[in-house]
Batch of 2 targets.
Target 1
Amino acid sequence: MSTRSPQATNPAAAVAREATPALVPAVERAVRLLDHLAGLRRPQPLAELSKALGMPKSSLHALLHTLVALGLATRSERGDYALGAKPVQWAGAFGQQSGVVDAFDAVAEQLPTLREEAIMLAVLDGAEVLYLACRPGTRALAVNFRVGGRFPASCTSSGKALLATLPPARVRELLGSRPLPRLTRHSIGSVASLLRQLEQFRAQGYAIDDEETAEGMHCFGAPVFAAGRSEAVAAVAVSLIKASTSARRRDEVVAAIRELAARVSQRLGA
């Protein structure tokens, strides 16, 4: 009697496997490593990277050597590794291809209320925000926002503005069931609390970061929409020094950042 493999007796499963090919392990490891490097506050040596990622030093060293040669990572004289410049170029290319950076650049200087303030353009990338454009203000801030920089979406006003346009189930899927990352003692700690906050932000049309990214900093973000999209494609945000900002000034800035988001959205056909 002949026997058949499960693959032969289940053609539907075979079709499903063909429709969803497996990930390439080497590429998956490289992306995991790049994601880790992108989240570092300082360069890390090989031993720390190996421990954090659970990868053998030998294979990790070979992977890092390749990334350094391709400009995706850098290696210091001490042997510490950091993210290279090429991913920043890719971030800029993404923004240019989507049209959102051009739209932001075209209107960023139109609102006098925001001329002295630091304003940023960000997109959602998993559970983080990725900054595509940053225009520095005249005041020094506790955080140096830069193109290609990342922060947890749950801590930032731009991230919350983006998350507020998603269905709650999608927010849970993105953020998972673990406690949320906390950058300060004010950072929100749970998805349940965040969802309640997002409901308020959705209703009022803008999101707030009240010292959640950095102590002493007050940020406001508003979603940017494109034609035919119910979910935001980006968000604009403004950062203020909380102690030196009056309630009247805060209200002016909130109105201005919402107007900036509306103008960028209009240029994208929304």
Target 2
Amino acid sequence: MLISLMDDTYDSHATIEECRLLNAAIQRWDESATSLLPNYLQRFYIELLRIFNEHKREVAIRDTYHVAYARKAFQDLSAYYLQEAEWLHQNHKPSFKDHMSLSAMSIGSPTLCIGLMVGMGDLVTRESFEWAAGYPNVTISCGKIACLMDDIVAFKGGKAKGDIATSIECYMVEHRVTSAVAISKILSLLEDDWKTLNQALFQHHAQLPMVRRIINFANSMPLFYAEKDAYTFNIHLKDTVESLFVETIPM
């Protein structure tokens, strides 16, 4: 929820100057930074600090550093959102490579991969968090899968995302190809990223509990982006949720 609220703020609601102030406050991570913000952002910022402090109290004392790593990942995400806002403000048209480098992070999945590790107790160590905080290929590929699947359903639905151009649009412009060719390329890249996730199971034995969580998280992406953007328009999840938790199973 916090990530969605912050994403919408940077994308749609805040001016570029407010975006800069919000990022400055999040990087400071202190109640004294509240005064930097307009009233409507002060409420969000105070609640953000409260939630992270609450999580810190909930985990075991020896695991409080877990929350510190999650906070740093959230601060990184804020900086990525600001970069996207700056591009939009400047009417900057990024290359396909630059777009993917930023969007794979700003989609939020690498941040959530670190968040998934909080509270895992003895299954993770400080070294595990250091590994994840370096955003290894497995977390980047998780982000790319979410980003590319989101872009495909948004483009096919005829509705652009409200922020910077999608990966499909960037590829079409840079390589002067049709949308069909661009989508074919994107699907090929998706296959490569799924392979990266599978390879991670064999390459990161010491981090296997985290790798499995990251892969399980990536495996949820088709639920949200297989045909329509069910993350943004959650009415598309209605039938799935009802079939799992409401309707009886035929005997």
